[in-house]
Inverse folding.
C-alpha cells in the first residue's frame, strides 16, 4: 500500500475546494493503489503548485524482461507469478516505482533482427503486464535497444498495453513523457536511450526541451536513461563518450548532469547490464546503472546477475536525503531473489569510491545510503 501523506493531501483537497478546479483523473484501478489516477497534464497550469511537505520515496530498478515468446520461446515457470515474490513488498511500499522494460509487450509480429551472435529480440506476451501491475510499477521507461525489436507495431503495442494497465510509459517520439498524480503528488517521468527510435541521450536539444517542459508540469521529476557500454568490462563510468561494438552509447556524465541542470530531481540509468557508481550532484541523486533486475532468459553471470533495487528518499525540493540499495540476485530464470551477501550494494559502494571524484555519498554493507 502506498503511503499517503495526510498533511499534504489535506492541503491539496482544501486548495481544490477553494479553486473549484478538480483533476479529471480517469479513476483507473489498474495501478498499485486504487487511489491513483492518470493526471490531466493541463491542470498543472490551473492549480497552484502545492508544496510537498514530507519526504517521498522513489523505488527504481534496471532492466525488466519477463520472458519471451518470440523468436525463441523462453518463459518463466508458473506464468511468472513468482518473479517478484521476494521484492514486491519493497516495490509497492515506495511512493512511486519505476523500471526499464527491456523488450516489447505484444502477441504477434516478427523480429526485424537477423540471426547472429549479437542478435537478441524479446517479445513478452501482453498478459505479462499484469505482473508489473501486481508488483507495483507506476512508470516504465521504453527508451532502449529492444523497444523496436518487432518494428513500429511492437512499440505501439507496448505503449498501449502499459497505458491500458494504468502504468505510465515514456521514451519514444510517440510517447515522450508521462505524468501521473499519485496520492496528491504529480510525478513527471521521461526516458532517454541511445538509438534513433527512442529519445536519445546524445540529442542535447531534445533532452533540454523535454526535461525543461516536464519540469513545469510536475512536482517531482524522474529521468530514466539507457546508456553506456555493456557487460562486466563496463562496470566503471568513463569520462566522455562510450561505444559498444562501434555504436555510440552516449556520454552519461554529461547527460545526467545536464538533466539535473534542467530541473530533474533524480536520474537513474540502465543498459550496461551491470551496476555502476552513484553520485550526488548539486544535491540530486544520479545512479549511473542499476543493471539487470528481472531478465528471464538473459545472461546472469557474475555482476550481470546482481539486481539492485534502489529506494531513494527526497525532500520537497527533490534533493536526496537518504535511501537504501536492497541487494537481490538472479539465480536462474525465476527472477530476483534476496541476496544475504548484499553483493549489489557492496559493488555499487566500491564503484562509487573509485569513479566519483569528491564523492558525497556513504553506502553501508546493508545498502543504507547516507550523505557525507
Ligand atoms: Zn539494453
Amino acid at each position: 500500500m502506498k503511503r499517503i501523506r495526510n498533511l499534504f493531501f489535506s492541503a491539496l483537497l482544501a486548495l481544490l475546494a477553494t479553486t473549484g478546479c478538480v483533476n479529471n483523473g480517469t479513476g483507473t484501478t489498474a495501478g498499485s493503489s486504487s487511489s491513483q489516477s492518470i493526471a490531466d497534464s493541463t491542470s498543472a497550469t490551473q492549480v497552484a503548485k502545492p508544496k510537498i511537505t514530507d519526504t517521498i520515496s522513489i523505488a527504481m530498478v534496471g532492466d525488466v524482461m519477463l520472458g519471451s515468446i518470440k523468436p525463441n520461446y523462453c518463459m518463466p515457470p508458473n506464468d511468472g507469478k513468482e518473479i517478484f515474490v521476494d521484492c514486491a513488498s519493497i516495490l509497492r511500499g515506495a511512493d512511486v516505482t519505476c523500471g526499464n522494460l527491456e523488450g516489447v509487450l505484444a502477441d504477434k509480429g516478427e523480429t526485424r533482427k537477423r540471426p547472429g551472435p549479437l542478435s537478441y529480440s524479446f517479445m513478452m506476451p501482453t498478459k505479462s503486464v499484469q505482473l508489473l501491475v501486481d508488483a507495483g510499477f507506476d512508470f516504465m521507461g521504453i527508451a532502449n535497444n529492444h523497444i523496436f525489436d518487432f518494428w513500429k507495431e511492437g512499440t505501439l503495442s507496448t505503449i498501449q498495453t502499459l497505458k491500458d494497465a494504468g502504468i505510465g510509459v515514456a521514451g519514444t517520439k510517440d510517447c515522450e513523457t508521462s505524468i501521473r498524480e499519485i496520492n496528491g503528488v504529480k510525478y513527471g517521468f521521461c526516458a532517454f536511450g541511445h538509438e534513433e527510435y527512442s529519445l536519445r541521450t546524445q540529442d542535447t536539444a531534445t533532452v533540454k526541451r523535454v526535461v525543461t517542459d516536464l519540469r513545469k508540469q510536475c512536482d517531482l521529476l524522474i529521468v530514466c536513461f539507457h546508456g553506456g557500454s555493456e557487460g562486466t568490462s563496463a562496470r566503471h563510468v568513463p569520462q566522455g563518450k562510450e561505444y559498444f561494438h562501434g555504436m555510440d552509447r552516449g556520454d552519461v556524465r554529461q547527460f545526467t548532469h545536464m538533466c539535473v541542470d534542467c530541473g530533474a530531481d533524480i536520474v537513474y540509468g540502465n543498459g550496461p547490464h551491470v551496476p555502476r557508481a552513484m553520485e550526488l550532484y548539486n544535491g540530486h541523486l544520479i545512479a549511473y546503472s542499476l543493471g539487470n533486475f528481472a531478465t528471464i532468459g538473459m545472461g546472469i553471470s557474475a555482476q550481470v546477475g546482481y539486481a539492485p533495487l534502489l529506494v531513494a528518499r527526497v525532500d520537497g525540493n527533490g534533493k536526496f536525503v537518504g535511501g537504501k540499495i536492497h541487494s537481490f540476485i538472479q539465480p536462474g530464470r525465476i527472477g530476483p531473489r534476496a541476496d544475504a551477501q548484499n553483493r549489489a550494494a557492496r559493488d555499487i559502494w566500491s564503484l562509487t569510491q573509485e569513479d566519483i571524484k569528491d564523492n558525497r555519498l556513504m553506502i553501508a554493507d546493508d545498502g543504507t545510503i547516507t550523505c557525507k
